[in-house]
TrEMBL record:
Source organism: Bradymonas sediminis
UniProt cross-references to Gene3D superfamilies, sorted A to Z: SMI1/KNR4-like
Coiled coil (residue ranges): none
Name recorded for this polypeptide: Knr4/Smi1-like domain-containing protein
Short name of one Pfam family: SMI1_KNR4
Length: 176
């Protein structure tokens, strides 16, 4: 039996619930990080703002929300010791095996403190701008794609054969 091809993106939600882009917020995020955002990330946020439910129930955060989430995680990072940060995580090659890093920028809310992030501080094996799964309940940090462009390409070609899009495309994140 052939699987029905279904879109990973909920385009109806995008049309109905997208907030407008905010270039000033994106510039402010980049200045706060002290690091350039990858061109594909900037292009996405030049085209849209927040999109509720875009990833079949998970939200694309606005640039403002990315900055707020980053600030919230930085408060944890600054409060914890290095031993605390290293004791609760493992990671795929290319990702630092810690709870949070200052150059991880949450941009998709996976609900409950988990998120997808753009990694602007990978290890030597990683790629600047790689997309990772991280967050409160994500003990093993997972590499999902080497860039936002690759992530979106994988998502766009998902055929629905393995359940929910985030898990079908990128594996069972909760079991990683």
């Amino acid at each position: 039996m052939a699987m029905e091809k279904r879109a990973y993106f909920n385009l109806d939600a995008r049309a109905a619930q997208a907030s407008p882009p905010n270039p000033a917020a994106l510039d402010a995020l980049e200045r706060a990080l002290g690091a350039p955002l990858p061109a594909d990330f900037k292009a996405l946020y030049a085209a849209t703002g927040a999109i509720k439910g875009l990833f079949n129930g998970f939200d694309l955060l606005s640039a403002e929300a990315c900055a707020t989430e980053h600030a919230n995680w930085m408060a944890i990072y600054e409060d914890w010791t290095l031993d605390d940060l290293q004791s609760c995580s493992s990671a795929d090659p290319g990702i630092h095996p810690v709870y949070y890093m200052p150059r991880w920028i949450p941009f998709v809310d996976r609900i409950g403190g988990d998120y997808l992030a753009i990694d602007l501080g990978p290890t030597e094996e990683g790629t600047y701008g790689q997309i990772i799964a991280a967050g409160r309940d994500t003990d093993r940090k997972r590499l999902l794609a080497k860039s936002l462009t690759e992530f979106l390409a994988k998502a766009a070609t998902y055929d629905g054969s393995r359940g929910h899009a985030l898990y079908g495309v990128f594996g069972e994140l909760e079991q990683a």
